[in-house]
Design brief:
Layout: H1 3-8, H2 10-26, H3 30-42, H4 52-62, H5 65-76, H6 81-102, E1 107-109, E2 112-114, H7 116-132, H8 136-140, H9 145-169, E3 176-180, E4 188-192, H10 199-222, E5 233-236, E6 240-243, H11 253-265, H12 271-294, H13 296-300, H14 305-327, H15 334-356, H16 367-396, H17 402-427, E7 440-442, E8 447-449
Helix pairs in contact: 2-9, 2-10, 3-4, 3-7, 3-9, 3-10, 3-14, 4-7, 4-12, 4-17, 5-7, 6-7, 6-10, 9-14, 12-15, 12-16, 12-17, 14-16, 15-16
Length: 453
């Protein structure tokens, strides 16, 4: 069936646009997620050690300079958002290509070796990720409601794909294995088990995914047939749009019906609720995007690198699952979202407490300890994704620049949290590294690894 014939069919056109929206969503946080998934491998050779996660979180949040520049640019020199998104997608492609060659290089700064190339490419991914909250996601707000949800699904599916790749790679699933040695008292020494395929290949696959995402966005912009899937709105530069709630006499029938449906389903909220949800967005961003990621290694590595590995993977898998559930569930009210936040506090608090108790948290030598750590990370990530998409869909219906304000608030909150916890992790003793990670001792049966000291 020719492409034009497919797009002339309303059903196939919607399926195509949903597919492209998902693929476009890949580019949002894919690079940042890829970095975090490779941390279990990189952390063993990086000069920053267990503090690497806090450095990465801080650098990721420094990408919010892009959010600031975007808002200034659109205020004084308005530019079509599509052009800016092209630039961000190009930056993501470039970063994912170069990082495969240079991720493990270090440079001496002020007398210390630092993973500077890794940090530079992380910053490039961060610019794409942070600005996606004020450019890419709001751009999809011009389409009918379901398309912004499938875009968010794409953000999660990209994490799911990265997780599957990391799972197949075995990134950090077993950091050490005890092998016979004459150089230790026990007769054994720990050696690192290599991944099944290289970090380079992992990032090159993500380069291909970035190219795919850029192609999807170009098609979304250039294919005029997709404009019939716009919500009935007036669009201005800076992702500023207003819903048209009343049609003039003699308007196209389909547009009248579409406008009527949108008007009936529009979930308009009061000024108080608007401010409350905006504040909630900032608070959740501080906790979920900065605080907990900064201390992930402290809440998982004491149970073994397998726990760190699987908590990162299953967390990213939870994202698209939560978005799919959101797509097929009724819209949440402000009160409903508040109740979900209360439930979210349970796994978030558990993660924070066991990180504080590192390097000797409860159930450290028991399977249940690792299981609870992985489960807490998975549930917290899935619930946060569900809540976040629910808030986004409400703000989308308020029109104006609500989605841009929502994205900006989220990124400002994330930045504040990252600064605070970078200082707490690196310049205080609140979160403690172990003296050693693993050692081997002799057993009549075999050589075993012990827990962190």
């Amino acid at each position: 069936m020719p492409c034009t014939e497919i797009l002339n069919n309303p059903r196939y056109k919607r399926i195509t646009l949903h597919t492209l929206s998902i693929i476009f969503g890949f580019s949002s946080w894919m690079g940042v997620n890829a970095i975090f998934l490779e941390v279990p491998i990189i952390i063993n050779s990086a000069p920053e050690g267990w503090k690497l996660s806090s450095y990465i979180v801080l650098i990721v949040q420094s990408g919010n300079i892009g959010v600031l520049l975007y808002n200034i640019l659109q205020k004084y020199w308005p530019v079509k958002d599509a052009y800016l998104i092209y630039g961000m997608l190009g930056l993501g492609c470039l970063g994912s290509l170069l990082i495969g060659f240079l991720y493990d290089h270090t440079i001496e700064l002020w007398g210390h070796e630092r993973s500077l190339p890794l940090f530079i490419f992380t910053f490039m991914f961060a610019l794409v990720a942070c600005t996606s909250s004020v450019m890419m996601m709001p751009y999809m707000g011009r389409f009918l409601k379901q398309y912004i949800i499938t875009y968010c699904m794409g953000v999660g599916i990209a994490g799911f794909i990265s997780s599957i790749l990391a799972l197949g790679q075995g990134s950090g699933s077993t950091t050490d294995e005890c092998v016979p040695s004459n150089s230790t008292e026990s007769g054994f020494e720990p050696v690192q088990v290599p991944p099944r395929f290289s970090v380079e290949l992992f990032f090159f696959i993500h380069f291909f995914l970035y190219l795919l995402s850029a192609t999807a966005f170009i098609l979304i912009v250039k294919m005029k047939k997709f404009r019939s899937e716009y919500a009935h709105i007036t669009i201005r530069d800076g992702n500023d749009y207003t819903f048209k709630r009343h049609e003039k006499e003699g308007s196209d029938t389909d547009l009248q019906d579409s406008s009527k449906i949108l008007y009936e389903k529009l979930n308009l909220i009061s000024t108080t609720e608007y401010r409350y949800l905006m504040t909630l967005t900032g608070v959740l961003s501080i906790i979920c995007n900065s605080v907990l990621p900064s201390i992930q290694s402290f809440s998982t590595l004491p149970y073994g690198t397998s726990t760190h590995h699987y908590s990162a993977i299953f967390s990213l898998m939870a994202n698209p699952i939560a978005d799919i559930i959101r797509l097929y569930t009724p819209e949440r009210s402000v009160k409903g979202i508040t109740c979900l936040v209360g439930v979210l506090a349970i796994p978030a608090t558990y993660i924070f407490v066991i990180a504080l108790m590192s390097p000797n948290p409860p159930l450290q030598d028991h399977f249940m300890g690792a299981f609870l750590s992985i489960a807490a990370w998975t549930i917290y990530t899935g619930m946060y994704s569900f809540i976040n998409v629910s808030i986004i869909t409400i703000f989308r219906q308020q029109g104006g620049k609500s989605l841009v304000y929502n994205g900006t608030t989220a990124q400002v909150g994330s930045f504040i949290g990252a600064i605070i916890f970078f200082i707490l992790v690196n310049f205080t003793n609140i979160f403690k590294n172990p003296l050693t990670i693993f050692y081997c001792f002799h057993s009549d049966e075999n050589a075993r690894k012990t827990r962190a000291l």
